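Tutorial, part two.
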Amino acid sequence: MLDTRNGRVWTALAMVPQDVQGVRTREETNRRAQRHEGRIPLQWLEAQAWLQRRLVQLSAEGQDQAHLPAGAGQTDIQMKWSFRPA
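Running the prediction step on this input gives:
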């Protein structure tokens, strides 16, 4: 939904694509890092609460990132968006 008074876009997690082009890495002690590039299915897990908060009142274009704890490691999330008239 577009707020025509301030130009903000309101959306929800259900509107986010369920897979994206990206890079996934997995690192474990005493093992070689595993890297995967390509389409990645999204399982929000640790990032879901951050993403739901961030999707409220987006500007027409922007970016954001977060570093979130995930078990003994962390999840890094970067998000870029833009909305264009259809």
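The mean pLDDT is 79. In part three we will examine how such features are distributed along the chain.
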